[in-house]
Structure to design on (876 residues):
RNA sequence: GCCCAGGUGGCGGAAUUGGUAGACGCGCUAGGUUCAGGACCUAGUUCUCGCAAGGGAGUGCUGGUUCGAUUCCAGUCCUGGGCACCA
């Protein structure tokens, strides 16, 4: 009976599960390896083939490391708080817990079907009260350290989602999830003081083995810049100064006006009575503008004069104080000194409002534009003649001497907005007391659990649903008995994922979040694999929490994730055409348009010729009609545009791993995911490639098993190690697979295994020793078949801990080698010489080659380049 | 606009301390096997000229360095991703 993956896979999954083959225990006598996947949010859609790419890769590494005698921690769990379950609850009234549990069961079934070697005894779920307890406990630690505080801050409110969002969750004025509009408004919220760790979050990136572009994204997000802070006294307000941050203290003599952000606290104080109405009008106008509009209108500068003046501390010049929305309250001090000669934004503003522009750095033409490059200072008294770095240093010294400022560092990173107006998240373990103070819930009372709810809809006036549950909100302080209110907000989804990797070290501990012994043994995570979309969200937040825990002596490493790898997305092809948009999903004229007739006006497609609004339509890949190699739209005329992008329901191109497993088995699915291309690179899924890896598995099976009947049986393989050629092929395969595993080049490792299977029987059947080594090499990639072959070869125990084969170095050296012979840099022959041949011999053999002789003729080579063992180039 | 990554056959990809471009797989072609096959086996498959031996071109494009460039350098185009008034 031919290779039948389903029976084999079911058998070994059952075996691993009942024997707990992959259970991990602390064993200080062995080296450890902690290999972790970013745990998934269990959505109701289940897995698609994109998810397992990283999981299959880490599984191969985990299996390989175990066979190398390393103690491997390889856990999986669920990041199970989250918005979709709550939205589902709003629609159906179903408790998010029930939805979540159903989804988890689905995900787990799908993962198990792939034969991933997780230690399922360590499975965790962030919504489990036994987990929430410790998430809240860590929040308490943060609070005790003064790193959690409540503040009235301008927040990103998303009306559609009914909650606020962190800065990192907003892109282009829209929510990261769903793309809903976001508005700015002031609200009292929980904040985490991540800015206190900005410097260390930046510095410690250096020691991490992470992709450079991810480190760069974090560096850019933290956005450190060096400069100076300068105090500008406000005229007629003896006790007030405007503090600004600047990266260009060398241009201070060119500061001709100041600008406050509209939200700046001094706005009200300094505005003169005559200007009050104008200022008020401007503030109203800007507060109505959404962040998005402000970005779109970035080039058009608006502002209003306050009527007040400040003194430039370096030359006592009186300069006007303006208000403008191009200055952001959330960066630096919310106020700037404007140097229109040397800053493009200030230049545009000065031009718009007719403010003076002074050149203080020579080298540009400030009648045309701001000069932001380096040059020598002019019109700057004691800075004249200095270059930029020297002028900066000199200015900072002067400011310090005068007491009007000094060197300073500023960061773009802002404090982390940590509360959400949702139900399905961790409640804050705090009590708001009658007297207006806030205290933490005692550790012994944790976790604070969510109450049951009849209705999950968000409240009005930015109130979370929990605010409506009086029986839960209203409570008493257990210490003083005074009445107290619980906090109606919950933590963002990031909270649970900030420390799950620590809980995995000791997941069933009821006395502590983790034991120091387990943490010291398993941490740090040696290999962390997951999507690049978390570059500045999860990965920054988790590093922050980890550093706080480190400072408290609760963890032993400065950083949580030593090596990071981002698997490229698995994409899908989809096919697009356009129809006239009649709104409400209808078309107005029934015509089809191909992509070359369409241009984009912002995000809306319009017809090139008529400017008519169009709508995108998609044909699922398996419904496309092909004619003469061209994909056609349903009108059988319009040529479809092929687009490669991530899988999505709306495109109808999502592939479910269940279907692949059902048809070809888990091993073929795993193999294909790895064989499709380099792990780090995105690649389009194509069902056509799977039969190729399936055939490879069939051949591997037949190598060792005779397909005689329903049972089949192992071939009677000759004993021993086989011919020299077979031994060499095996040695080369071991060498290649081993080194590729080390580099995570799993696609080329599989290729080496394919070559082995193709060639090993060329001069006789596989000998037993060679077959046994092959089964072990196959194990990280196709573990079910590998176990089956191992068993058929007569082994009673699983090969999960069998020793990894080693290549005999002597067999890796060939007796005869091929040398490329070039004449004038062009390849003219390939010659074979003994491996130990010297240059003279190679040259002699080369010159005897007929084709080489033809090209050399009777000329004497002017120069001969010999690369030992590889190439000989004759230059005439 | 700025920053980062990447452009190699019909397709996914392999090969970079500069040294035989196209491993492996898909697809395709031919042959074998089979009652038959969308199964299996063998051979071939970058393009192009040639009966062949062999020649020419070729790693987005244009130049440069070199005996030799997919690899290094300069410029340029395209694709994907990130950031976007951060003073």
């Amino acid at each position: 009976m031919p290779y039948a993956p389903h029976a084999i896979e079911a058998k070994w999954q059952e075996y691993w599960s009942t024997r707990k083959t992959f259970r991990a225990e602390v064993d200080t006598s062995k080296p450890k390896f902690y290999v972790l996947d970013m745990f998934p949010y269990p959505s109701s859609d289940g897995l698609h083939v994109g998810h397992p790419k990283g999981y299959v890769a880490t599984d191969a590494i985990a299996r390989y490391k175990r066979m190398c005698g390393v103690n491997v921690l390889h856990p999986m769990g669920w990041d199970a708080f989250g918005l979709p379950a709550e939205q589902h609850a709003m629609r159906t009234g179903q408790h998010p817990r029930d939805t979540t549990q159903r989804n988890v069961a689905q995900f787990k079934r799908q993962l198990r079907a792939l034969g991933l070697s997780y230690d399922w005894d360590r499975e965790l779920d962030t919504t489990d009260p036994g987990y929430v307890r410790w998430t809240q406990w860590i929040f308490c630690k943060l609070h005790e350290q003064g790193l959690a505080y409540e503040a009235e801050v301008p927040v990103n409110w998303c009306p559609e989602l009914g909650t606020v969002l962190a800065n990192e969750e907003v892109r282009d004025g829209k929510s990261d999830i769903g793309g809903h509009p976001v508005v700015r408004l002031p609200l009292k919220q929980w904040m985490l003081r991540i800015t206190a760790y900005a410097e260390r979050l930046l510095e410690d990136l250096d020691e991490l083995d992470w992709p450079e572009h991810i480190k760069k994204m974090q560096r850019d997000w933290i956005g450190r810049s060096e400069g100076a802070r300068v105090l500008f006294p406000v005229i007629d307000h003896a006790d007030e100064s405007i503090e600004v941050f600047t990266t260009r203290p060398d241009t201070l003599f060119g500061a001709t006006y100041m600008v406050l952000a509209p939200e700046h606290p001094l706005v009200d104080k300094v505005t003169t009575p005559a200007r009050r109405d104008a200022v008020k009008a401007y503030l109203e106008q800007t507060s109505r503008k959404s962040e998005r509009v402000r970005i779109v209108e970035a080039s058009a500068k608006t502002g209003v004069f306050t009527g007040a003046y400040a003194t430039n501390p370096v030359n006592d010049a009186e300069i006007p104080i303006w208000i403008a929305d191009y200055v952001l309250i959330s960066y630096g001090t919310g106020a700037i000194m404007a140097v229109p000669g040397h800053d493009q934004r200030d230049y545009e503003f000065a031009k718009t409002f007719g403010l003076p522009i002074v050149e203080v750095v020579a080298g540009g033409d400030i009648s045309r534009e701001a000069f932001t490059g380096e040059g020598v200072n002019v019109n700057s008294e004691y800075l004249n003649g200095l270059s930029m770095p020297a002028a900066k240093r000199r200015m900072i010294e002067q400011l310090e001497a005068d007491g009007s400022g000094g060197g300073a560092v500023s960061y773009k990173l802002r404090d982390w907005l940590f509360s959400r107006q949702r139900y399905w998240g961790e409640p804050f373990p705090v009590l708001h007391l009658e007297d207006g103070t806030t205290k933490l819930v005692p550790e012994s009372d944790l976790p604070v659990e969510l109450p049951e709810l009849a209705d999950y809809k968000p409240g009005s006036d930015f109130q979370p649903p929990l605010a409506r549950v009086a029986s839960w909100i209203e409570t008493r302080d257990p210490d003083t008995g005074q009445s107290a209110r619980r906090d109606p907000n919950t933590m963002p989804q990031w909270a649970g994922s900030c420390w799950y990797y620590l809980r995995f070290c000791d997941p069933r501990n009821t006395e502590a979040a983790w034991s120091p012994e387990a943490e010291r043994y398993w941490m740090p995570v040696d290999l962390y694999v997951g999507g690049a979309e978390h570059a500045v969200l999860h990965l920054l937040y988790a590093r922050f929490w980890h550093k706080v825990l480190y400072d408290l002596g609760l963890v032993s490493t400065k950083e949580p994730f030593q090596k990071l790898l981002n698997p490229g997305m698995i994409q899908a092809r989809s096919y697009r055409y356009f129809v006239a948009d009649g709104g409400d999903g209808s078309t107005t004229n029934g015509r089809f348009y191909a992509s070359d007739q369409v241009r984009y006006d912002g995000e809306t497609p319009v017809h090139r010729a008529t400017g008519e609004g169009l709508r995108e339509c998609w044909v699922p890949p398996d419904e496309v009609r092909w004619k003469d190699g061209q994909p056609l739209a349903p009108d059988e005329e319009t040529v479809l545009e092929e687009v490669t992008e991530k899988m999505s329901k709306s495109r109808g191109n999502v592939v479910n791993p269940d279907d692949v497993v059902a048809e070809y088995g888990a091993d073929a699915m795993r193999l294909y995911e790895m064989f499709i291309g380099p792990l780090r690179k995105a690649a389009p899924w194509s069902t056509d490639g799977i039969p190729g890896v399936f055939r490879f598995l069939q051949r591997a099976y037949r190598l060792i098993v005779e397909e005689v009947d329903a049972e089949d049986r192992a071939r009677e393989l000759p004993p021993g190690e086989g011919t020299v050629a077979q031994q060499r092929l095996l040695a080369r395969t071991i060498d290649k697979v081993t080194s590729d595993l080390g580099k995570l080049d799993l696609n080329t490792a599989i290729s080496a295994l394919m070559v082995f299977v193709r060639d090993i029987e060329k001069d006789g059947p596989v000998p037993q020793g060679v077959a046994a080594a092959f089964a072990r090499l196959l194990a990280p990639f196709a573990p079910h078949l590998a176990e089956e072959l191992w068993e058929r070869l007569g082994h009673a125990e699983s090969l999960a801990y069998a020793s990894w084969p080693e290549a005999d170095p002597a067999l890796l050296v060939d007796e005869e080698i091929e040398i490329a012979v070039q004449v004038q840099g062009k390849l003219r022959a390939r010659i074979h010489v003994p491996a130990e041949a010297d240059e003279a011999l190679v040259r002699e053999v080369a010159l005897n080659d007929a084709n080489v002789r033809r090209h050399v003729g009777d000329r004497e080579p002017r120069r001969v380049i010999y690369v030992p063992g590889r190439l000989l180039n004759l230059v005439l």
